Structures are given as C-alpha cells and as structure tokens.
Amino acid sequence: MMSLRAAVEVVGKAVLVAEHEHFVEFRIDNHEHIPRVARIARVVAQVLRDAHEPPAEADAVQEALLAYGKQLFMDEWMNQLGPNEDEARALDEGTAEFDRILSDG
Question: Which long-range contacts (CB under 8 A, 24 or more apart) does 93-98 make?
C-alpha cells in the first residue's frame, strides 16, 4: 500500500502535468504559470501538514514538486531552442527566469 506522502506526491505531480499542458497549449505567460506551480506545491504540502504528517515530509514533498514543475518548465524552454542558439546559455537563462519569477511570487 502506498504511503500518504507518496500518494499526495503522485497527485501533486499529476496536477502539475495538467497545469503544464495548459501552460503550453494556451501559451500562458511565465509570470502566471510559475506562481501556479509554486501554489500547487505549497497546497499539496499543506495537505500533509493538515494530516499531521511530519513537517519535514511536507517540506520534502513541496521541494520535490517545485523541482518537478521546474523540470517541466525547463523541458519546454529547451524545446523552444532555435537551431543556432547556445544550449548552455539557454539553460542558464531558463533557470534564471524560473528562479526569478519564483522568488518574486
């Protein structure tokens, strides 16, 4: 049987995938999408806190979901790379964009 933490994390990832697909399909601005990723991670972690799971478990799930949301974002960022663009520079720019918007939110 799956633990509560594992089940909640699986649900959180499914919600992030749905949000990501919406972001891509409707060309949602990064300033809307990234705060949504953070909100989803925060709310999913709160479910664990409300269920009296150890705070460290909730924090770990929140961080894992933020990392997963960031990876989805970066995969899409890199998919938009033109044939003559520098991959390392694009990766740095995408990471900086995500982190900047996340810290502003």
Answer: 95/70, 97/30, 98/30, 98/34, 98/70, 98/73, 98/74
Give the predicted TM-score (pTM) of the model: 0.96
Length of the chain: 105
CA distances from 53 to 40, 42, 45, 56 (A): 18, 15, 10, 8
Structure-block tokens of residue 52: 């009296």
Report the amino acid identity of residue 65. Answer: L
Taking only the tens place, the pLDDT of each residue in 43-74 is: 999 999 999 999 999 999 999 999 999 999 99
Do 9 and 65 form a contact (C-beta atoms < 8 A)?
Answer: yes
pLDDT band at 105 (very low <50, low <70, confident <90, very high): confident
